[in-house]
Amino acid sequence: MIRDLGKEKDNSLPRVPKLTDEQLKINDAEQAERAFIPAQGTTYNRALAVIQESESISLKDMVPIQRANYAQALADVGKFKEAAKTAQDRETKAYYKAIDKAVWRNDDDRCGCDDLNTFDKDRNPVTHDRHFVVREIWSEKHGKKMGLYKCNKCGEMNVRE
Ligand SMILES: [Zn+2]
């Protein structure tokens, strides 16, 4: 008993187990998998759970809030076309459709509006980009979170770097 206590004292710092090459490989694979989840975030994973749960219920059997949550979840994982079909009100449908279009259009597409030109305090011309990031969305095309850019003059949108 006493000897055991002494042993414990000697080992007060946890020992790092020595892994074989095979175990290291498995460990690396597990870490890589885990690292991928935070990159998508908890919203993404929560959305996947909502989608899985919702798929067993037909749309007409859902109460409006269920259906809205389902549509939101589809949007959260970047399925904007499906989100537009699932959403009930016209405004939300149109919004998801517009984002879907913004995702799949060419990243280099820009509207023909002019940027905003002003002058700084020394009367030097300064150009302000007419596009701003409305929000970040999960882009299926890019496979990651991307900025949803919008022109503050005409309202056109594009999902791009
Ligand atoms: Zn524009």
Topology (elements, then pairings):
Layout: H1 2-10, H2 21-54, H3 64-76, H4 80-86, H5 90-104, E1 116-119, E2 125-128, E3 131-139, E4 144-151, E5 157-160
Antiparallel strand pairs: 1-2, 3-4, 4-5
Helix pairs in contact: 2-3, 3-4, 4-5
Residues 111, 113, 130, 151, 153-154, 156 line the site of zinc ion.
Structural key phrases:
161 residues, 3-stranded antiparallel beta sheet, binds zinc ion, alpha+beta, 5 helices
Could you explain how this protein is built, in words?
The protein is flat, with a radius of gyration of 25 Å. It has one domain (22-160). The chain has five helices and five strands; from the N terminus they run αααααβββββ. The termini are far apart. With 161 residues, it is an alpha+beta fold. The strands form two sheets. Strands 3-4-5 form a three-stranded antiparallel sheet. Strands 1-2 form a two-stranded antiparallel ribbon. Helix 2 (21-54) runs antiparallel to helix 3 (64-76) and helix 4 (80-86) runs antiparallel to helix 5 (90-104). Residues 111, 113, 130, 151, 153-154, 156 line the site of zinc ion (ZN). Zinc ion binds at residues 111, 113, 130, 151, 153-154, 156.
